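Q: Hi! First time doing this. I have a protein sequence and I read that you can turn it into a structure. Is that right? Here it is:
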Amino acid sequence: MLAFAFRRLLSAIPTLLILIALAFALIRLAPGGPFDTERQLPPEIEANLKAAYHLDDPVIQQFGYYMLNILSGDFGPSFQYRDYTVTELIAAGFPVSLRLGLAAILIAFVAGVILGTLAAIRQNTLTDTTVMAAAMTGISIPTFVTAPLLVLVFAVWLRWLPAGGLGAGGWRNLLLPVIALSLPQIAYIARLTRASMIDVLRSDFVRTARAQGLPMFTVLYFHALKPALVPVVSYLGPATAGIITGSVVIEQIFGIPGLGRFFVQGALNRDYTLVMGVVIFYGVLIIVFNLLVDLAYAWLDPRVKYS
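A: Yes, that's right. Below is the predicted 3D structure, encoded as structure tokens:
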């Protein structure tokens, strides 16, 4: 198992290098620059700034400087957030996004698996139709619609919860953004669970367990659940990384200072180092979560062996 994990991490290095090279090229192909502000800088000051950050060097040389800094663990200074390095900004925003994203994906996993399993065992009934209709609605309606509606109902009309901000970081401040973030994921996981569970319930080993007179709960929990979760776990890897770093809409609506806001502001301001740092961090997260997913296969499916 450890040898497999080590090989996967080594094989991910070329992928990460390609990601860095593409992101480095694309951010510089975008029009504008980090010092193109509404107030025009004097030419000599702008030239000094570009020289200080090696922006006046050829692109290949800039990439070489950047890779040397990355290998030494330095993402560089932010061009727009004064007196802050990219590492400091990621360290400030990531814990907030991590807390928000993990809570949302946990709720989505539990609720999605329960709803999908319920729809599978009641296939082609009113329960199945209702769950799938709700799932399609959750997939179709974007979060920038559901989030303001949740604020309108629970914060403005009912006044049960705060409309935004972190406050002291209590659960009341996080409840609405977590729910808004988890709703689409509940819909996806419910559909995946239903399709997989229906296929597993038709398997020979499940039929044998039911023929032995075992209760339906026992059959589901001890025999059908693990193999049915394999496609769900495959989805959870990139979904967890995406929900942690890509919750920018939710963070903007609820005024939460997470990692997604830094990424969007960095892209708008052409903050090259900040955008690159978040992209690399996001790529590493996807690699790590996909590795965890592959390792979970061996626990969910005994036929999977890593040698």
